[in-house]
Structures are given as structure tokens and as C-alpha cells.
Design brief:
The protein contains 7 helices and 19 strands. With 311 residues, it is α+β, with helices and mostly antiparallel strands. The mean pLDDT is 93.
Length: 311
Amino acid sequence: MLAQRTLKSITRAVGVGVHSGRRVELTLKPAAPDTGIVFRRTDLPKPVDIPARFDSVSDTRMASTIAAGGDAGAPKVQTIEHFMSACAGLGVDNLLVEINGDEMPILDGSAASFVFLLQSAGITEQPAPKKFLRVLQGVEVREGEGAALKWARLEPFHGWKLAFEILFDHPAVNQTGQRVEFDFSEGRYPRDIARARTFGFTKDVDAMRARGLGLGGSMGNAIVVDDARVLNADGLRYDDEFVKHKLLDAIGDLYIAGHPLLASYTSFRGGHALNNQLLRKLFATPGACEVVSFERAADAPRGFAEPAPAW
């Protein structure tokens, strides 16, 4: 049987929210089979649990935010996509995330610190079959026209592979790869994707901070780009780090489906909003998907039967 996975032990982390700039503490705890990944706000008079599900998403501006019941006015947790990406990359199914604030810490701006945190706690199998969401028919969402066109698509595939393309008219970005493909059966998520950092442009900083966003951003947790170049002294971690970070985000956004997907995902200039719209369309389309398990690990797609390799 291909089994569900959770943590072997409790682990903790401290950081700041990239948008709020506030200090936040995390405690990651093992959870029972079929729990899923649940965020618990421990700073409230009565703790509130928020499951990481597509219909809990309440805001997709600059990040993926989930709220109790999907209600934008309810208790929330912002910027969960990097953490969710790490959970997807390591195959973690069940986890309780206790947090004493409303935004996940940005740490180094990638998923790498979360990968390290999860791997340090250890990942263990549980006595229950791992559940996948298998896409049975293609679904697509589109936005804009012409030069403003954006789209994202899911299609049937016996495995999990992604392709992402960005299009920035910027000298620093144009010098890097703007399209990337990743197949979980062939690549190593911790090595190939997890270290890609979020990025921002100096021209946007003042406008963001006027809206109360990006207050915790710095060169220690983001790639910062001026009108012509990358300002970080250490440069890029990957030659195509910009587009790899967008793919990292997509992996996290799509793990909010509640189960790992068996599908092929393709996106052109997509983002958090389109990714959530895509999941909502998938679940709203009759016969477009089904939940499956594999009694024999050998029947599962490559890349899922073994624990994710380390760096």
C-alpha cells in the first residue's frame, strides 16, 4: 500500500511575515491519517482551525490566503504557498500547523527553509492509503486578451508534471530562462525547485508599502531587482530562478486541493488567483476528477512511492 505521511516529531520555527513585517512563531505537529494540512491560529481567545483546502482560499492578491469557512472576514492565515509547496514536494499529507499570527513567516523567501524544517522533524508513513486527486478531463481558466492574456490548464496524466512560462519585459529577467518544466518522477524538488526565492522590483516597493504590503521584505528573503539588474550581492541561485519561483508557488497553490494531483499542469503568466480559479473549476466540473489510492505502491506513478530525496 502506498501510505499517507506525517511528521515523526514536533518542530518549531520563528520568522517574520513578508507583508505584515510581524514576528510569528510556528509549531508543526504530526496529525492523524485523513486530517490533511490544518492551520491553527493559537493567538486568538479561542483557537481556530483552518484546513488548507481550495474552498478555504479567501484572497489571492500577492499571496494565497486561507480563512475559516473561506470567509474573508474570518480568522485567516496569509502567504501559505511556500510552506504548502514544501509539503507537496516532500509528500506530507497530514500536519497541524500552529501559528500565533495571521501570516506564515517568509524565512529565506523560498521553500527551502520549510523543506529543511520538515526533513529535520522526520517524515513517517501512516497506516492509511495515500489519496490522490486524479484529473480525468482537461479544465482551463483564462484571463485577459492579447498582450494581457494569462491562462492555466490541468490535463489528465499518470503522474504530476508542471510547465510554467513567464513574460517580463525587463533586462534582468530577460537574461534568464522564462519557461521551466518539472516532472516529479524525474527531478528532485528540494534540489531543483525549493531554493527559488520570491522576487520584487524596487519601482513597486513604495506602492506596496502604501497598501500595507511587503513590510517584511528584504534582500535576505527576496530577489530585489531595480530597473536593470539584480541587486542581491549573491546573485541568483538558479539561472532561471524567477520562473522557478512561479512554479514553486503553483505547486503550493495546487496542493491546496486537499490531495496531491495526478495531472499535467501548464500555465502562461498565471499566479495565485488563476491557480485557485483552476481548482474551483476542476471541482465544479462533473466527472473532471476522482479520488484514488494505490494498494500496490508499484502501481503508483514514479516519484511518489519513495520519500523525497534530500538535497
